Amino acid sequence: MAENSTVVAAGRPADERLQKQSGLRKLLSRPELGAIAGTVLVFLFFGATAHGTGMFAADGIMNWITVTAQLTIIATGAALLMVGGEFDLSVGSMIGFAGMMIAIPTVYFGWPVWASVVFAFCGALLIGFLNGLIVVRTRLPSFIVTLASLYILRGMTIALSILFANRTIVSGVKNFAGDSIVVPLFSGKAFQGLFVWMANAGIIGKLPNGQPSVQGIPAVVIWAFVIALIGHIVLTRTRFGNWIFGAGGDANAARNVGVPVARVKITLFMVTAFCATVYATCQVMEFGSAAADRGVLKEFEAIIAAVIGGCLLTGGYGSVVGAFFGALIFGVVQMGILFTGAPNDWFQVFLGLMLLTAVLFNSYIRRRATGER
Amino acid sequence: MSEATNPSAATPLIEVRDLVKHFGPVVALNGVSMKVRPGEVLCLLGDNGAGKSTLIKTLSGVHKPTSGTFLVDGRPVSFSTPRDALDAGIATVYQDLAMVPLTSIARNFFMGREPMRGVGPFKFLDLAFAERVAREEMKKIGIDVRDPSQAVGTLSGGERQCVAIARAVYFGAKVLILDEPTSALGVAQTSMVLKYVHQVRARGLGVIFITHNVRHAYAVGNTFTVLNRGRTLGTYEKAAIGIEELQNLMAGDKELQLLSDDLGGMV
Ligand SMILES: Nc1ncnc2c1ncn2[C@@H]1O[C@H](COP(=O)(O)OP(=O)(O)O)[C@@H](O)[C@H]1O
Ligand SMILES: [Mg+2]
C-alpha cells in the first residue's frame, strides 16, 4: 500500500507497471498453461520410453483416449464447481449409486432401460440439488457436506445391491436392454465406416480376423468431447459462466451486484451429479452391470485433473480446457506406465508429485495474476 | 445549528423518517431520519456501533426496516433484495466487498449485468464490448487500463474503489452509497477516491458517504448527519458547522476532545 501511494499520484494511472507486464502476464494468467506444459512433457517422456510398445498405435491411442475421456466427463463438472468455489466429494459414490439406479429397476422391476436411465438422471440431479441446497443454506464447507454424501451414497449402493442381488454386483442389464437406443448412445462406437476404410487404406492396423484394430470412436469419447465443449463455452462465454467466476471468486461481492450466488452453486452441484451419471451410464451399458465399488476414488481423480488444469482450491479461477489437459496427463501416464511395464505403484507416486507441482505452480500464478496482493 | 432543510431544493432522492431496526432484542436503529438530494454528498458520521452500517444496509435492500418511512423519489418503497434497490437506482459500494479480485476488470465491471450478443438461445457474452466500455469508463476517471482482461487484483485499492463507483454510475445509479471507501487507503489513494466522489456529485447524483474520518468527510461533504446509538443526533450544512465541532459531535462526548487537547490535536 505504502509503495503504491508513492507511485500513484491522485487520479493518475500506474500504467508503467501495467505496460511491461501485460504481454507475459496475459499468457501466464491463463489457468491451463501449466497443464499444457505438463502434457507436452508427458508426451515427450512416453514418446521416448514407450516407443515401440504399441502405446502410439491406433488401438493404444484409443486406449488412453478412452481413459482420458472418462475422466474428462467428471473433471469438467469438478472444474466448474471448483471455479464456483465448492467441492463435490460425492462424485465417485454418485457413479456407483447412479449405476444401481439404472440396473436395479431394469433387472428387478422390469422397467425399460431408457426409463431406468431417465430415472437415474433425475435421481442424480435431485441428489446434486440437495447437496447444493445444504451447502448454501447451512454455509457449511462443501467438503464436509459432500463427504457425508460420499458415505451415504456408497452405503446405499452397497446395501441396495445386497438387498436385490444378494451380492455387490447387479448384472444382466444387457439381457434386458435388448436393442434399446440407450445402449449405442452410451456404449456404441461412432464412425465405424471411417475406421474400416482407414484399416483398408493401411492407415491403422487390422486384427487377425480382418477387422480394423480400432472399430470406432467409443461413445464415452463423444460424450466427453460434448460435455467439455459445452462446459468450456458456458464458463467463458455466457452470463452464467461469469456468475460462476463471481460466486467462486467472492460470493459477497457477487451477491452485492445482483448475482444469484445460491442458485449458481446449486446448479453446479447438479452439474457434477449429471456428469457422474453420464460416466455411470457409459459404464453400465458397456459392462452390462452395475457394481457397488464403481467410481471409488473417482472424486479425487476429478479434483486432481481440475487442479492440474489450473483450478484454484479457493475458487474463482480455473478452466475446463485445463481440466481436460489434466485428464489427458492422467490418462497418458496411467496407460503409459502400463505400456512401458513400469510397476503400477509408481503411478500413484507420480500422481502425488504432479498434484503438488500443480498446486505450487497455481499458487504462484495466482500471486502473479493478482499482483502479489 | 440549522437543520439541513433547503426549501428550494428538489425532491430528495432518498428520504427516511424515524427508521427503526431491531435485530431480535438488539435495537440497531432507534428513529433515524435523513435525506439526500441530487448533487449532494451526505456524510454519515458516527462512532462504532452507531448504526451506520445497519442504516445503509436497510437503504440498499439487505435489511428490512422494523418501522419507519422510507421514500425514494418521494414514493414509499419496500425492498426485499439488494437487486430491488439496484433497480431503484441505489448502488452501494462496500469497502472490501466490491470486486472479485481474480476476475478481469471487464468481467467485474459487468458482473450481474453482462452484455450479450447473439440470437435466441445462442446468446453469448459480448466481451469485446465489455472490455471497450470498461476501458473507456476508467479512462474518464483518469485511470488508464491498458488491458481490461487483467485481474482486478492487479489494481490498487483506490483504483478498485473507483472501478466500483464507475460501474455504479455507468449503470445509471441515482444514489451512490459508499461505506468507508477510504478507510483502508493511503493518502494519495484516498484523494483519488475523494476527487472522484466530487466528480460524481457534480454530475447530479446523490452520494451517501460513510466514514470515520471527519477530515475526509469535510473534504467532500455538503451535509453531515451524525448518528449516535441508533438515533440521528443532528444534520448540519457545511456552512453551519466547523470541522472541530463535527469531530466533537461524532465522538459523542467530550472525552475524546479532552484527550485530543492533551495530545496536541492528534486524534
Ligand atoms: N445482523 C445483526 N444482528 C444483531 N445485531 C446487529 C446486527 N447488525 C448490527 N447489529 C447491532 O446494531 C448496532 C449498530 O451496528 P452497525 O450498524 O454495524 O454500526 P456502525 O456501522 O455504525 O459501526 C450494533 O450494536 C450491532 O451490534
Ligand atoms: Mg460499520
Characteristics of this structure?
heterodimer, A: 373 residues, 17 helices, disordered N terminus, B: 267 residues, alpha/beta, Rossmann fold, 2 domains, six-stranded mixed sheet, globular, binds adenosine-5'-diphosphate, binds magnesium ion
Question: Strand order across the biggest sheet of chain A?
Answer: 1-4
Oligomer: heterodimer
CA distance, first residue to last residue of chain A? 9 Å
Q: Give, in order, the helices and strands of chain A.
A: HHHHHHHEHHEHEHHHHEHHH
Bound molecules: adenosine-5'-diphosphate, magnesium ion
Which structural class is indicated by helix and strand composition of chain A? mainly alpha
Low-confidence stretches of chain B: 1-8
Largest sheet of chain B: 6 strands, mixed
Helix count of chain A equals 17
Largest sheet of chain A: 2 strands, antiparallel
The coarse overall form of chain B would be globular
Overall average pLDDT of chain A: 89
Q: Strand-residue fraction of chain B?
A: 25-35%
- CATH homologous superfamily of the largest domain in chain B, by name? P-loop containing nucleotide triphosphate hydrolases
Under CATH at level 1, the class of the largest domain in chain B stands as Alpha Beta
Instruction: Summarize the amount of helix of chain A as a percent range.
Output: over 70%
Short overview:
The complex is a heterodimer of chains A (373) and B (267). Chain A is mainly alpha-helical. Chain A has helices at 2-7, 15-28, 33-49, 58-83, 91-108, 113-138, 142-165, 173-177, 182-187, 192-200, 219-237, 239-249, 251-256, 261-287, 298-308, 320-340, 345-369; strands spanning 169-171, 189-190, 217-218, 289-291.
